[in-house]
């Protein structure tokens, strides 16, 4: 893994449960039939349903690659099954990515694929003992243990469990005795960088310095290597608890007791050295000299809730005091002195969807419906507005942004944010599975603790495979309290289905107790708001008189940008540069009476000639439209109006696309509808 890249995991409350890149081609067929998500509310379907389908495509098609023998160092891969790479810019599985993606979604959606992916980051020592691969990102490799335990809970595969337990034990032993990123007996904590912050941009000074003079990576910095970080120690706590769970399942009670003793000691040390009563949060870092860092770490705060490191009062305090940015919970916060809102650090005050996924689960676990709904909607909008799931976004603007990092005394390097990032997509899948539907896996079966926010409407998840069962799960009402739970029309004990279930079955859940509120602040109560997560004036939805292009649903490579001036809103759209690129605008009208209307578009065209696009309504091409040259500068903007556009229904969808025969290559700023 190159330094400054990023890597991580999102692991649930398991601790309490008994494209061609570098010559590697994505698989040509999905390994399984994917589920479908269907909302009764068309606006919820457009936002969340579309994002869910895109996330499935990201995982099961774009980032599923074929078997590669170079990853079979464990000797446990199935050559007939592929594996999951880290993303469009990263063709490897990597330890954290393999673990996160398996836990977030792959173990449920494609168990054989998840198993291969988990074994792809395991090798053997000289004696043949299994261990998580020993690379230069070793400080938090034990996250694999929690992912492996989750895989067992989902699948019930005891052969896998036995091999995973040996891998867990060998790996924990290595880490406990390591000279680097090992155990500090003085504090009772593990040393080494924070969970996925492998770049020095993720650390304040000290242990960094103002010019990041030692390295762009985090490990070469002595203060980071010897320091202790919240998220990493929580990952070790979870690993001990889940190693104990494995031992119990395999009939090794004395070994289970030993792991639980270590877990209890580590939990006590975390609370002793990281909890900060003054801020109501856990601190981010503890340096070897005892200096504490009272900063906010997104993964650390989420893990504290999900893994049960925080007691109930601490968990409530975390939710109350955590600082979010406009587009989600940031990685670390606030801006270090050497960074700023204009140039946010790659791992500092910037939004990574994997952190959003963890935080959304934590909010759902706390019953914070408004917070869960908000975080989930933010990621859905980021994906919908940028042609899919990217690696990193600017926390203030939502623009695709890889962040900044020092490369010496005066130079800052602006990183790219990689497209088709797998753990960004699986973060959203897990928001739906674990947050919305409340899927909770145990060794006895699948339990449900749903969280359906007001305003989203009834929702059904179809064709969800769980072991030998094919489930259709329907949620009705809104809230977190289950008032009725049926399996195939009959009440089911414990709001759960047994692990032995087979064949096709339907689960119906009715919910009550939805949080009363107005999430988007448009003075329309969530329960009556057709677009409860987007402010608007037409039944709570954005009015069609002015729609910013960055809020459209964008596909085919279209994404937000701010590298030119003169645009309105928070950004403009670029990427309309190749066939297949498209921007779609939903026109929420007060009535469905008008059958034609006029569309005005603000755009930039600094090419040498007029450019064309195809105007469509409801997916049907209306005509090719022209965008004349505005200026020789991409900072200049003009408008063009298309009259006589046929419209039908209250919520027609108007699309501008680069279709065959078009010349494209324009930027978009906004669209207006006039009836």
What does this structure look like?
The protein is α+β, with helices and mostly antiparallel strands and 675 residues long. It folds into 3 domains: 13-26 and 64-84 and 92-352 and 394-419, Glycosyltransferase (Alpha/alpha barrel), CATH 1.50.10.10; 35-62 and 375-390 and 421-538, Maltose phosphorylase, domain 3 (Sandwich), CATH 2.60.420; 543-674, Galactose-binding domain-like (Jelly Rolls), CATH 2.60.120.260. 28% of the residues lie in helices and 23% in strands. The strands form 11 sheets. The chain has a 6-stranded mixed β-sheet. The longest helix is centred in the middle third of the chain and has 22 residues, at 253-274. The termini are far apart. 54% of the residues are buried.
Binned strand content: 15-25%
Whole-number count of domains: 3
Average pLDDT, rounded to a whole number, is 94
The CATH topology label of the largest domain is Glycosyltransferase
Task: Tell me the radius of gyration.
Answer: 25 Å
Helix count from the secondary structure assignment: 13
CATH architecture of the largest domain: Alpha/alpha barrel
Largest pleated sheet: 6 strands, mixed
Low-confidence stretches: 1-31
CATH class of the largest domain: Mainly Alpha
- Oligomer classification: single chain
How many extended strands? 35
